[in-house]
């Protein structure tokens, strides 16, 4: 049996990740491919507890280093207990965020040095990476507006605009050097965004079949 493929959707808050995942899910269904979806941080019972810590506002401030370690603790649980077992069974995985989020948010937004980030990342993931990443690239002003329309913003979503500008810049830097990351212009209309996703997906799919 062929190993499943791991497709990840990345981008700032309100960029349209969940909307894109619905489209990708429909596409895989139409191709008769068995898949699961995951979200990060979270996606396992223990990892969801770590997500709750990262998202909530408490009297005791969460340090930037503790936040980073929680992200990787949650990712270790998800990758080992859910993603890898699925892929080994031939089941595909669609991830709502994955490691690129940590590189962008912790490295860009929080400005943690690579000398801290990379050894942790390499130790936890040991070369494990998505087969395809769709980066929903958006001006954070537009993304945050879309997210705000949906409801109250969490601890991270309430960061200042410059935080998201730095995060976006790191996302784009990785997309330029890693050919498995495809940039989608997520600021366009829903119809135009769906058109871009559809063409990326079909051409990639034809290549991997
Ligand atoms: N291209 C688009 N144009 C306008 N609105 C859009 C577009 N794509 C998605 N939306 C709307 O914007 C909001 C945010 O989209 P969505 O929930 O897919 O983003 P997300 O990246 O998953 O957000 P979050 O990071 O908060 O999970 C939703 O209300 C969605 O219907
Ligand atoms: Mg979402």
UniProtKB/TrEMBL annotation:
Q: Mention one GO biological process in which this protein takes part, according to its record.
A: dUDP biosynthetic process
One annotated GO molecular function = ATP binding
Stated family: Belongs to the thymidylate kinase family.
Q: Does the keyword Nucleotide-binding apply?
A: yes
| Lineage of origin | Bacteria, Pseudomonadati, Pseudomonadota, Gammaproteobacteria, Alteromonadales
Instruction: Give me the Gene Ontology terms describing cellular component.
Output: cytosol
Please give the function described in this protein's UniProt entry: Phosphorylation of dTMP to form dTDP in both de novo and salvage pathways of dTTP synthesis.
User: Looking at its record, which EC class is this enzyme?
Assistant: transferase
Q: What is catalysed by this protein?
A: dTMP + ATP = dTDP + ADP
Record-annotated residues binding ATP? 11-18
Record flagged with keyword rRNA-binding: no
As recorded in Swiss-Prot or TrEMBL, the protein's gene is named: tmk
Name this polypeptide is given: Thymidylate kinase
Against InterPro entries, the record matches this protein to: P-loop_NTPase, Thymidylate_kin-like_dom, Thymidylate_kin_CS, Thymidylate_kinase
Q: Which Gene3D superfamilies match?
A: P-loop containing nucleotide triphosphate hydrolases
Q: Where is the signal peptide?
A: none
User: Residues in domain Thymidylate kinase-like?
Assistant: 9-197
